[in-house]
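Design a sequence for this backbone.
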């Protein structure tokens, strides 16, 4: 499991097998305040990118052992569109994905490029983060590299909406006193009315963030959602979807999965079988995993 992790219980997508295109270190052209991967200098490309054939082999092996997950999610320890072989990877996934849907989670930084839009068109679902439509707040919350332009992102998303027939989801993550002002919210709502995404997810920090920043309350999120009237808004609240067929992971797989996405005890109980839960407890005892408290929830992470 060098390139795949999970399956992860995703709030909206079901059981999702994560595909990590940058397994060695965080590679992102943003350094978001809320990033759950920690602080890092921004980069323009993924260094030493893994060969797509090796990644595809691992995904095929997972499917042959566990069956098709609901979703094959292309992500990275950073930004997946910085991966130079994305064309070959998407082509390969489309050859054997069966009943699984393909999804990419991108920060949108490269969507201004026609080459990237052409690649992403071949996926079933594309989820793009857009945390602010105002230059000042965008820079504060996402801390992008100099090569990234907010206006190119917004224009790129608008064009992509016209070119893409799959499901386009926009994700907004709000950070207290950074991108949650009424001006911010109104500017985003106006842009999104032009884009017409299939869904807008509005959430806040709920995992350990890279910097000392604070989340909004659920009540505040619901109140902000009111500014997005006319749009298919989903306020992201922690919820428990019942999943059948719990998953068994080895100790190594548990550590690799929780490194990419910390889980709460409730998540662990819901997704993993008894044996895996026992292994998690042992790893905590050994000090390989630890508890982290965020926003009144306890997460388990290496
Ligand atoms: S875009 Fe994603 S991976 Fe990159 S810094 Fe922001 S949260 Fe982290």
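Sequence:
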């Amino acid at each position: 499991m060098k390139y795949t992790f999970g399956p992860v219980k995703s709030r909206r997508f079901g059981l999702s097998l994560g595909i990590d295109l940058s397994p060695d270190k965080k590679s992102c052209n943003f350094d978001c305040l809320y990033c759950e991967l920690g602080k890092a200098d921004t980069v323009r490309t993924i260094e030493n990118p893994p060969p797509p054939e090796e990644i595809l082999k691992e995904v095929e092996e997972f499917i042959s052992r566990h069956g098709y997950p609901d979703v094959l999610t292309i992500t990275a320890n950073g930004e997946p569109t910085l991966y130079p072989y994305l064309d070959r990877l998407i082509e390969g996934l489309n050859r054997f994905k069966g009943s699984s849907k393909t999804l990419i989670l991108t920060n949108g930084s490269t969507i201004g490029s026609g080459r990237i839009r052409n690649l992403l068109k071949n996926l079933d679902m594309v989820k793009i983060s857009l945390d602010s439509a105002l230059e000042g707040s965008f820079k504060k919350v996402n801390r992008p590299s100099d090569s990234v332009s907010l206006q190119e992102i917004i224009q790129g998303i608008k064009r992509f909406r016209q070119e893409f027939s799959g499901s386009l989801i926009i994700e907004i993550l709000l950070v207290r006193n950074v991108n949650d002002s009424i001006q911010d919210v109104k500017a985003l709502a106006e842009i999104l009315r032009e884009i017409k995404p299939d869904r807008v997810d509005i959430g806040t920090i709920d995992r350990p963030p890279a910097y000392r920043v604070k989340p909004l309350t659920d009540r505040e999120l619901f109140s902000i959602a009111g500014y997005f009237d006319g749009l298919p808004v989903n306020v992201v609240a922690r919820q428990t979807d019942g999943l059948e067929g719990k998953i068994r992971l080895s100790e190594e797989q548990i550590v690799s999965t929780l490194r990419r996405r910390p889980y709460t005890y409730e998540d662990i109980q819901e997704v993993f079988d008894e044996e895996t839960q026992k292994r998690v407890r042992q790893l905590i005892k050994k000090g390989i995993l630890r508890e982290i408290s965020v926003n009144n929830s306890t997460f388990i992470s290496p």
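The chain has two domains: 4-239, 247-302.
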